[in-house]
Amino acid sequence: MSLKMSNLLDIEKYLLLELVYFHLPPQYKNRISRETPMKLDEYIDLIEQCGYSTYPGFISRSEHGCQYKKRRQAHFKRIYASSDNLGDVVVTGYVNDNYGFYGNTADKNKTSFVAIALADRDNNGAVVFSGCEQMDLTSIVLDWGGCLIASLGVVTVHHHKAIDFYDQYMTGILGERNILGHSKGGNLATYVYINRLDENTNAYCVNAQPYCWYTMTETQKEALKTDRFEYIVHANDPTRKASYVSYISRTAPLNRYATRRFIDIHGFAEVNFDEFGNLEGARVIRETVSQLKSRFFNDYTAEKRLTHDECMARFQEKLTEITALPRLFSTTLDEILLVTKARAAIIWFKDEDDRGPFIYPLIIKSPGAADLYQLKLRPGQGIAAQSVFAGLPLYIKDTRQYRLPVGSLNQAMGLTITSEIAVPLGIDEAEVFGALELVNKQDGVFSLEDFALVNDMTLTMLELFKKSGQSLDNYRDFSLLQIRKGGKRTFAVEKNGFTEKAFASPAERNAFLKKILGLSLEPNERLIFNRITFTRDKQEQLKRLRKQEYAIVFENPHLRYAKTRVSTVLIALLLQLRENRVNLNNVAKMMGLHEKLKTRISDLCDAEYIRLEYGMARIRRPKLVIVNPPPLGLNPAAYQVMCNRLKKDCQKKAVTVIVLQIIDET
User: Fold this and answer.
1) What element of type H or E holds 213?
2) What's the pLDDT score for residue 508?
3) Which H or E element spans position 519?
4) Positive or negative CA dihedral for 533, 537, 543, 546?
5) By the 8 A CB rule, do 408 and 401 touch?
6) What is the 3-class SS of 444-485, one letter each residue?
7) Which residues pair with 551 in a beta bridge?
């Protein structure tokens, strides 16, 4: 258990960053000190009683605000319960310079400065700074106003408070001294970090208000480019543009169903974490500006090209303090991406089911990660599979000259694979359990030097893996959709699976359908779709999920008997999908109904009606197709033909299907 930055997972750091926005109840606000610390889980237990800052959630004291606190508390408890790092962490300091019951400072004019200090039993410490807080007049001037002028290089009251807080609570800390901040808090964290470089400091900032680049010394600028400093931004978050930034470490993509309001993008809840607690889809990359701007400002944006030996020395140094396997694998991929300039990196593991052996992605560093998880590749499907099942490292300079099917990977990643490297993972040559794969180089194709370096770095990582004696079997999850109640899974369907589920009555079937549509989730239930979690309060996101990813066959039980023409129904569907470029006649032809466009639906034969229902579902290109019980009197043979066709679609990895049936009690 450790507060060391190299061991803390992204999801644990995000917990600490968000926790500071929950203000301790009045009866606890003055109890915390280094002599009388509070355990981290005790703080989490108090969240229901906590006040909440106006920002970043704009949460009021309404019932909605209370429900929000309960949901975040449950989220924090799940993280804490599964954490190997936070169990012995204590809160040693707490400052809240706000008006009202929650403030604990004697200053007359409040600045809304809020911070907590943390420590672990190994004498590592951390301070966490909140972003902008309340909306009263003095806070607007000193907090929000200070945020603006800080980007111009003005040292504000908050900067003085931040560095004083750090000095007070890091005195006596002999291990790592870590600094975390979000939004304006990231600006403060940056300021403290660059002014305490001679100490054992690291910093982790998310969507941070940039500190003024032009007022820094060359040493300070260099320090922001090192591994000691992480500057993470969420895609589409504009905060980084408040000043010049050339040191972004990672860009985290938003989940595809995220609410696109600034307040949500800038906060904490719209990015995803993989099963290991790493930011999903994020990869380490030092972003830079254009060459012209780089030369004009002389800002050190050009990265030094390291030799093979220098890369290996740096890599081995990075791995020495890592104890958790998820962190080991994630760091390995990050470092390999940095030195090879690959566009995506994947660790695959081998498994077996009733159809035989396959490989599946365990960790993915790619913006398209959400579509790759749960993918199963069989022997002959891509070079990663070939590397695993043949036990050989493979270097494909140009995939056009190497004939091996990669269609599943191409489709899932949304790109054309041009160059690849795959290295088998194993205890020895006879015991290969997976592969490390790199896909596409940013500028050109992979070289033999890249191949040699990846081999050596992989072997170094495997040595640590073998020494650990740990297993990753618990992280295997192939479900596209699952419902969890508390910590228990109540339903799941495997990606590209064909599942039939029977019910005793229509009412029971309707209740289940509402559940998997996210329409009747209970407070302690979660719907997890393609590894993205939805709770009952995310109705806007759930609505977007249903529209984008679901299709229901026989959704309207009365359509079979409608007097509406086939053309009218198809035109309405195309307008709903905004498929303006799709020709109506071509769609009807694909369904085998091009001669039936003017026919009323009630006049179609059963086989034709089945083709219409199937076609309307598949034209949506959904990830999940739900098949309701067919209308009464429909020919069972025609219905079975459709089910068989959907099974073939699943085998082609084109869709996932749930067939709902009512048990015939007669």
Assistant:
1) none
2) 94
3) none
4) positive
5) no
6) CCCCHHHHHHHHHHHHHHHHHHHHHCCCCHHHCCCEEEEEEE
7) 625
Residue type at 372? L
Range with the lowest mean pLDDT among 43-47, 59-63, 292-296?
A: 292-296
Q: Is 492 helix (H, G, I), strand (E, B) or coil?
A: strand
Domains with residue ranges and CATH for the chain:
10-297 (3.40.50), 308-474 (3.30.450.40), 479-662 (3.40.50.300)
CA 458 to chain centre: 25
Q: CA–CA separation, 127 vs 44, rounded Å? A: 17
d(CA 271, CA 367): 12
Q: With beta carbons less than 8 A apart as the criterion, state whether 110 and 103 touch.
A: yes
Distance CA 229, CA 202 (A): 6
Nearest to 530 by CA among 550, 515, 513: 550
Give residue 242's identity as a one-letter amino acid code: A
CA atoms within 13 A on the CB side of 557: 8
Exposed, middle or buried: residue 378 (CB in 10 Å: 0-12, 13-18, 19+)? Answer: middle
- Report the residue count for the chain: 666
508-517 as b/e, with b when 16 or more CB fall inside 10 Å? ebeebbebbb
d(CA 396, CA 259): 40
CA dist 71 to 14, 63, 68, Å? 15, 12, 5
362 and 348 Cβ atoms separated by less than 8 Å: yes
CA-closest candidate to residue 347, choices 434, 411, 273, 457 = 434
- In DSSP notation, 252-273 reads EPBPTT----HHHHHSSTTB-B
Of 491, 489, 519, nearest in space to 503 by CA: 491
CA geometry: angle 79, 80, 82, nearest 5 deg: 70
Residue that the structure tokens 């998820």 belong to: 326
Record the tokens describing residue 355, joined without a space.
């159809």
* pLDDT score of 294 more than 50: no
Torsion of CA 385, 388, 390, 395, to 10 degrees: 70
Could you give the CA distance from residue 102 to residue 628 in angstroms, rounded to a whole number? 53
218 phi, psi to nearest 5 deg: -65, -35
Q: Are 43 and 73 in contact (CB under 8 A)?
A: no
The whole-model pTM stands at 0.71
Q: How far apart are CA 342 and CA 336, in angstroms?
A: 8
Q: Tell whether omega for the bond before 56 is within 30 degrees of 0, i.e. cis.
A: yes
For 163-181, the three-class secondary structure string (H helix, E strand, C coil) is HHHHHHHHCCCCCCEEEEE
Can you list the positions of beta strands (E) in 333-475? 342-353, 356-365, 394-396, 420-426, 432-441
Interval 572-629: pLDDT, tens: 888 887 655 567 888 888 899 989 999 999 999 999 999 999 999 998 889 999 999 9
CB-based contact 498:653 (threshold 8 Å) = no
**Beta carbons of 421 and 395 less than 8 angstroms apart:** yes
